[in-house]
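lol ok so funny story. i was supposed to be doing the assay writeup but got distracted and ended up predicting the structure for this chain instead. priorities right. anyway since i did it might as well share w the group, maybe its usefull for someone
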Amino acid sequence: MNNEIIIIRGGGDLATGVAQKFYRAGFDILVLEAHAPTAIRRAVSLSEAVYEGQSAVEDMHCQKVTTIGEVEACWHDNIIPLLVDPEGISIQSIKPNAVIDAIIAKKNLGTNKSMASITIALGTGFKAGEDVDIVVETQRGNNLGKLIFEGYAMPNTGIPAEIAGESTDRVIYAPSTGEIKLVKEIGSIVEHGEIILTVGNTEVYAPFSGLIRGMIRNGMNVQKGLKIADVDKRTDIDFRAISDKAKCLGDAVLEAYLYLINCRKHGH
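and the output, tada:
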């Protein structure tokens, strides 16, 4: 373990955008995930390795591992290892240079400054300067990717950002508790009112015509209100490409890391 080690908590689409920046910059990355991730943008989420054993997003290959020896073997082969470790128990033994919380849980699930010499968190639920060193703003707009050195990111509005003229309707939430049965797949072009999945006995329809950009995994049991799908009016987008938002946040987190390294080098 000669390179600088970066642990990223979370492997969803935004965390994957962060991972790519550090991966391309030559860092050794370890992704920590939950036992049953619920990412809907699965085509661009390293977290799929939890279920499939491996995943690939753009130029990154990720492999699920269970031991520190397997982690080091992945780094040697230029593969990103993923460990199911929602509590972050492995952080203490690995002793990373930085811990990045990219779970996007809208609350802090335990990340703190004692975990590493550098700690960075994305979005709401963290106090910069207290819980972590830097918080990165995740809300779309002029402040997306802003580094926050004191205080909190903007509070969660609960309203999805507008894309191609659609906001609230483009994100679909489970209308009831039950098992997911997919009728369509990620990447499908759908018409307004078409059935795209069912939750238990409840049918869920496309809110408008477009492309299914994200869907939760088939067969999952979900609670009412969980985000389960995302439809985009733009049918020409590449649903396998990391989003502009994820890339922006990745840039911001890498900047935050290098900023803190520079500050400490000069005794700030």
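Residues 168-232 form a domain with the OB fold (Dihydrolipoamide Acetyltransferase, E2P) fold (CATH 2.40.50.100). The chain has two domains: 5-156+244-265, 168-232.
back to the writeup now i swear
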